[in-house]
Amino acid sequence: MRTIVLCLLATLGLATAYGQGLKKVYNEDINPMEQIDQAIARSKTEGKFVVCQVGGNWCPWCLRFADFIAKDSAISNVIDKNFVYIHVNYNPRKSEGEEKALLAKRMLERLNNPARFGFPVFVVLDDNGKVIHIQDSSFLEEGQGYSRDKVLRFFKNWVPEVVK
C-alpha cells in the first residue's frame, strides 16, 4: 500500500512540475470561430497569414510551446513579421455543455480536423482563411521541449512570400 501511495504522490508531483510556472495563453471565454474570423480580417489588412495554435491551458506541451517562442527573439520576429498568431482554445471535455461542445466540433471541422495530430497542433491559414497546412507539433519536439531549428524551419516554410 505504501508503494502505491508513494507512486501516486510522485506521479502527482511530476504532473504538477510538468506545466508549473507557465503562463496560461488560451482565452477560454471567447468564441473560437469569432477569434479566427478576426485574425483572418487582420491578416488581410497586414498581408500576413494566420497561425492557429490549437490546444488549451490543460495541455502542458501547448503552454511550453507558447513559452518557448516568446523567449526566442528569432522565432518571435519571424512570427510577428509574417503571421497573425492566435491561441485557439479547444476543450475536449463535454462537461461545459452541449453548446460549447458543438462550437468546439465546428471549430475543428473548419480547421480540417487537426486534433488527429494531438496538441498543440498548428493550422496555417492564408489571408482568405483557407487551411494551407496543418503541423503536427511532435515533429518540432526535442527532448522535453522544442527544437529551435525545427520550429524556425516550420515558420519560415509557411511565410506568405514563400508560399505565394
Brief overview:
With 164 residues, the chain is of the alpha+beta class. 50% of the residues lie in helices and 18% in strands.
The domain count comes to 1
How would you spell out the order of helices and strands?
A: HHEHHEHEEEEHH
| CATH level 4 superfamily | Glutaredoxin
Highest-level CATH class:
Alpha Beta
Shape-level CATH architecture: 3-Layer(aba) Sandwich
Fold blueprint:
Layout lengths: L1 H18 L12 H15 L2 E7 L4 H12 L1 H10 E7 L8 H13 L10 E5 L5 E6 L4 E2 L2 E2 L1 H10 L2 H4 L1
Parallel strand pairs: 1-2
Antiparallel strand pairs: 1-3, 3-4, 5-6
Can you describe what's shown?
With 164 residues, this protein is an alpha+beta fold. It has a single domain, classed as Glutaredoxin. Helices cover 50% and strands 18% of the residues. The strands form 2 sheets. Strands 2-1-3-4 form a 4-stranded mixed beta sheet. Strands 5-6 form a two-stranded antiparallel sheet. The N terminus is likely disordered.
